[in-house]
Structure formats: C-alpha cells, structure tokens
Amino acid sequence: MLAGDAHVVVCDGFAGNVLLKACESFHRLTSSVFEHESHLLSQLEDRMAILNPENYGAVPLLGIKGCVLKAHGSSSSHAISNALLTAFTAVAQNVIASEF
C-alpha cells in the first residue's frame, strides 16, 4: 500500500484505523525530520500528499446503507472542508448505490 500499488484497501475497522494512523504518523514524522530542509520537505510533501489527513478530510465507512465518512475529532477547518468535498464526491458518483 505505501508503495502506491493499491487504490483501495479493504479491512476491518480496527486494522484500517491502525493502518491509517500509521500512515498519518509517518507523514508527521517525515515533516518534522525534514523541517529545516525546505527543498527536501517540499518534494516529500508533494509525494506524500495522500498520507496527509488534511488533504482528504475523511474516509468512507462501507457496508452501511448511506454515505458515512469518518474524520478526526481534532480535524482542522481545512480537513473538514475536504471531508465535505469527499462526501459530496461520494454522493455525486453514487458510491453507495454501486456498493449494494
């Protein structure tokens, strides 16, 4: 998954949350390690944008009859804005109807 070979990963809630938290932590760790190397940090952040929870805001919970997305309790306004865009996209693309 971290190599970028997977577009979708399906797992139970516990394993999914552990994987998600590990990816987000890796993003934060890398950002802090390279904070004084602005040219490297910029390149890394571009390549690791998918690991930044601010960029997607929320992830869908599948297997539920409806559009349900999970965001962090400590989400910033930017992350919540992106969560709403993610929800709008899921509804516009009829993700729920294609699931059932």
Task: Summarize the SSE layout with pairings.
Blueprint: H1 13-33, H2 38-47, H3 53-56, E1 59-60, E2 69-70, H4 77-92, H5 95-99
Antiparallel strand pairs: 1-2
How would you describe the overall organization of this protein?
It contains 5 helices and 2 strands; from the N terminus they run H-H-H-E-E-H-H. With 100 residues, the chain is mainly alpha-helical. The protein has 2 domains: 1-51, no CATH class; 54-100, no CATH class. A two-stranded antiparallel ribbon has the order 1-2. A hairpin with an 8-residue loop joins strand 1 (59-60) and strand 2. It is globular.
Keywords:
100 residues; mainly alpha; 2 domains; two-stranded antiparallel ribbon; 5 helices; single chain; 56% helix; 2 strands
Instruction: Estimate what percentage of residues fall within beta strands.
Output: under 5%
- Please state the average pLDDT score: 81
Q: What is the general shape?
A: globular
Written as H for each helix and E for each strand, in order along the chain, the element string is HHHEEHH
Class inferred from helices and paired strands: mainly alpha
Summarize the model shown:
The protein has helices spanning 13-33, 38-47, 53-56, 77-92, 95-99, and strands at residues 59-60, 69-70. The protein is mainly alpha-helical.
